[in-house]
Q: What sequence folds into this?
């Protein structure tokens, strides 16, 4: 075979591999649940649900709602990456369903909320605040945020303080000094490299790279936080170190009430590993 022809074939193969990977990267690890699977899940659990997408500030906000439509609302905000289905067990819990309206949105950039289009903390808070105003039923709101969702609900409460009664921060990342973003993240925020990052890992990488600066900007306002705030954190959390807890205790000086539940020998994933503890704490905390 002539050398020129072999070079052409290798080049063609390389292009095909690159295109194949780009298709793979955009289709895998989406962390999205199809509408068909969503229906099947709630049907199996015998739980009535609402699935909707609203347009807020020219962005799609997809969410799931269960429970009593005229009851106080629990809003579950997922971490990074993630989507509403991180809270499946809470959306279908019989005790919570009896007492609350339960709402779990896909955060901007995740799930079916403009997938892969990342945003900084304050921009996300603005969209979610407007979303919750749009679906307001006149009853008190409680915001529950895990991991990245922790600083996000704090930002939301600071930007719209009269809208929320309670905050529940689960393994929340609030201390900017605890954030040590890996240097490899930055190149993956650049075009065209960002398109090589698979699925939901792309917006996750973008927002985690921005998080430290977001928290630095947020820190001076933390003393303004006025909501009743419950913090639950595992003492062996390697992803969001426990040092975030004393930082929050020191910073939330004007919170109406502040309670900390520290869990010995527990890691970052308390939403699932400590499901019963989290549910019981919610029921006790939300008046």
A:
């Amino acid at each position: 075979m002539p050398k020129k022809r072999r070079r052409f074939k290798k080049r063609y193969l390389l292009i095909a591999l690159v295109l194949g990977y780009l298709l793979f990267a955009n289709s895998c690890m989406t962390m999205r649940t199809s509408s068909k699977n969503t229906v099947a899940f709630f049907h199996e659990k015998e739980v009535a649900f609402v699935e909707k997408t609203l347009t807020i500030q020219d962005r799609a906000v997809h969410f799931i709602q269960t429970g009593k439509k005229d009851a106080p609302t629990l809003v579950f905000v997922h971490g990074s990456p993630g989507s509403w289905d991180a809270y499946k067990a809470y959306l279908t819990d019989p005790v919570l369903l009896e007492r609350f309206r339960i709402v779990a949105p896909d955060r901007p950039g995740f799930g079916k909320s403009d997938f892969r289009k990342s945003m900084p903390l304050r921009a996300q808070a603005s969209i979610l605040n407007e979303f919750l105003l749009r679906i307001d039923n006149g009853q008190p709101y409680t915001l529950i945020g895990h991991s990245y969702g922790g600083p996000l609900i704090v930002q939301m409460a600071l930007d719209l303080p009269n809208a929320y009664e309670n905050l529940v921060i689960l393994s929340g990342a609030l201390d900017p000094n605890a954030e040590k973003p890996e240097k490899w993240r930055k190149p993956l925020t650049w075009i065209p490299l960002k398109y090589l990052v698979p699925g939901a890992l792309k917006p996750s990488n973008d927002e985690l790279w921005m998080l430290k600066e977001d928290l630095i900007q947020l820190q001076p306002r933390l003393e303004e936080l006025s909501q009743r705030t419950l913090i639950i954190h595992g003492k062996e959390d390697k992803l969001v170190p426990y040092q975030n807890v004393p930082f929050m205790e020191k910073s939330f000086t004007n919170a109406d009430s502040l309670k900390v539940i520290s869990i010995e020998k527990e890691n970052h994933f308390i939403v699932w590993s400590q499901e019963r503890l989290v549910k019981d704490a919610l029921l006790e905390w939300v008046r």
In short: Confidence is low (pLDDT under 50) at residues 14-28. The beta strands are 50-56, 59-67, 73-77, 101-105, 141-146, 166-170, 228-234, 258-263.
